[in-house]
């Protein structure tokens, strides 16, 4: 942990670095970075003895690199980041950066429970090559995580981060929705560029887009299941677990939405709903990793306490893909 004097020094140094870093990211004079596009949230491969398998990670990235993704999210929820040590989280990001072309954005999950730990992890993620930090809401004391507390938290992180910050709301995991009024306030910060919203409430996504329309602020859908609807209300892309196995199809849905081919987009979206639900809220990361094995990637085991699927669950998972024509 940083002592008060070191903390003050880091704060001053990062503020000086911030202007040059954000300037380098700007897409135009006075504009923030453009994060629009599709991002698969990369899973963390483990060996049979629960060690991070960096070789399989690199193999998966090379295969995923054949699709027109804007970039990759690393150490998000699907990366099992709560089960990794701090050094493992940083090493995973280091390896991903080494394997990715420079034109692919690397959004690294740097959220921790305390503001100070989040700042330290964000700075470290920047040092190992992250282009932006995706910061999940602190949630252990969720009863006290009101708008004021969250605005203070994210403002402090964004003030001290040498890379742009993306807000991350995932109520299924945290039990906490980042309030819309807090998002609107935070959208005015020069180093906060957008939000990944995984709640699935399209009216909320539309409201955030509407309320932040005068800011240079972008919204990413947090799942392929509501990607079309999110584009329709103004989102600019998505972080989609399903893109780890159906990357071409998720990118095709993006293209259909962006070119106004809504009828074809609707047909494709319908065929993605059940598979997406299966690898997210129904069977979670064990389901996603099992599906990756079927599609020629390395899924492998999860870290305990997550368990592999039962035979019945695996059969149900397969049915969600075969009934929609994907297996």
Automatic annotation (TrEMBL):
Q: Where are the transmembrane segments?
A: none
Q: Does the keyword Mitochondrion apply?
A: yes
Annotated GO biological processes are: glyoxylate catabolic process
Q: What is its main location?
A: mitochondrion
Catalysed reaction equations from the record: (4R)-4-hydroxy-2-oxoglutarate = glyoxylate + pyruvate; (4S)-4-hydroxy-2-oxoglutarate = glyoxylate + pyruvate
Instruction: Cite a single Pfam family from the UniProt record.
Output: DHDPS
Q: What is its EC number?
A: 4.1.3.16
Q: Which GO terms describe its molecular function?
A: (R,S)-4-hydroxy-2-oxoglutarate aldolase activity; 4-hydroxy-tetrahydrodipicolinate synthase activity
Annotated Gene Ontology cellular components are: mitochondrion
The UniProt entry annotates the active site at 168 (proton donor/acceptor), 196 (schiff-base intermediate with substrate)
SMART domains, alphabetically? DHDPS
Which amino acid positions bind pyruvate, per UniProt? 239
| Subcellular localization(s) per the UniProt record | Mitochondrion
Record text on subunit structure and interactions: Homotetramer.
* Family stated for the protein in its record: Belongs to the DapA family.
What is this protein identified as? 4-hydroxy-2-oxoglutarate aldolase, mitochondrial
Identify the species of origin.
Answer: Balaenoptera acutorostrata
């Amino acid at each position: 942990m940083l002592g008060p004097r070191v903390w003050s020094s880091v704060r001053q140094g990062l503020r000086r670095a911030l202007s040059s870093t954000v300037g380098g990211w700007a897409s135009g004079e006075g504009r923030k970075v453009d994060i629009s596009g599709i991002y698969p949230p990369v899973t963390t491969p483990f060996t049979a003895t629960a060690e991070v398998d960096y070789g399989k990670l690199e193999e998966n990235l090379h295969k995923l690199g054949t699709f027109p993704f804007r970039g990759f999210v690393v150490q998000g929820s699907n990366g099992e980041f709560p089960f990794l040590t701090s050094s493992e989280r940083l090493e995973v990001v280091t390896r991903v950066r080494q394997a990715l072309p420079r034109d692919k954005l690397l959004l690294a999950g740097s959220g921790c429970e305390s503001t100070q730990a989040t700042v330290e992890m964000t700075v470290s993620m920047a040092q190992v090559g992250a282009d932006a930090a995706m910061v999940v809401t602190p949630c252990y004391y969720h009863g006290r995580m009101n708008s004021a507390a969250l605005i203070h938290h994210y403002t402090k992180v964004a003030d001290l981060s040498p890379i742009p910050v993306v807000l991350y709301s995932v109520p299924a995991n945290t039990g906490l929705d980042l309030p819309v009024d807090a998002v609107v306030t935070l959208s005015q910060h020069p180093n906060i560029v957008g939000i990944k919203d995984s709640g699935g409430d399209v009216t909320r996504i539309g409201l955030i887009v509407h309320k932040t329309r005068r800011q240079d602020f972008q919204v990413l859908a947090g799942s392929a299941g509501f990607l079309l609807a999110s584009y329709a209300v103004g989102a600019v892309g998505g972080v989609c677990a399903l893109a780890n196995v159906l990357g071409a199809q998720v990118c095709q849905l993006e293209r259909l939405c962006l070119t106004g081919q809504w009828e074809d987009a609707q047909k494709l979206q319908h065929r993605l709903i059940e598979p997406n639900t299966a690898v997210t809220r129904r069977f979670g990361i064990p389901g996603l990793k099992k599906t990756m094995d079927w599609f020629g990637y390395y899924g492998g085991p999860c870290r305990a306490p997550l368990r592999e699927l039962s035979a019945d669950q695996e059969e149900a998972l397969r049915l969600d893909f075969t009934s929609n024509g994907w297996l």
